[in-house]
Design brief:
6 helices; 4 strands; 51% helix; DCC1-like; DUF393 domain-containing protein; protein-disulfide reductase activity; DCC1_Trx
């Protein structure tokens, strides 16, 4: 029996996408999300009933029940599942959801031209926090840690 709740299809050729997915992978300590690089050789979007262009131009998440979430709703589900409920809740607020829905397509169109330094700085900080929290969850009060 698997505990995979979401399967995430992302553009691994995109620095921003790769950084965010690495950050989320570090939070995936319970193995609830499977991450698939849609830019990897041999990936077949057609086998999922999708086009390669669609998968490369928006984050796609498939739920355990087979439903598809695309774009901002996909991120909301990932953040909720991976222990970022405050981010998930923010994305469900009508005003922020509307802004995110308008900004996301612009980010997707320009993702390969965004400057590397701010992306690296932002996601390295988030990644370090995720790793620290994951390590803390594996340790109990007697200072013993599970590997």
């Amino acid at each position: 029996m698997t505990n995979i709740e979401l399967t995430t299809y992302y553009d691994g050729a995109c620095q921003l996408c790769r950084a965010e997915m690495r950050n989320l992978m570090r939070r995936n300590t319970e193995g609830r999300v499977d991450f698939v690089d849609a830019a990897a050789p041999g990936f077949d979007a057609g086998a999922l009933g999708l086009t390669q262009e669609a998968v490369m131009n928006a984050l796609h998440v498939r739920t355990a029940s087979g439903d598809w979430l695309v774009g901002v709703p996909a991120f909301e589900a990932l953040y909720r599942t991976l222990g970022l409920p405050w981010v998930s809740a923010a994305l469900r607020q009508p005003l922020l959801a509307a802004v995110a829905a308008r900004v996301y397509p612009w980010v997707v169109r320009h993702r390969h031209h965004l400057p590397r330094a701010p992306i690296t700085w932002l996601f390295e900080r988030a990644g370090r926090r995720a790793a620290e929290r994951a390590a803390a969850r594996r340790c109990d009060d007697s200072d013993t840690c599970r590997l």
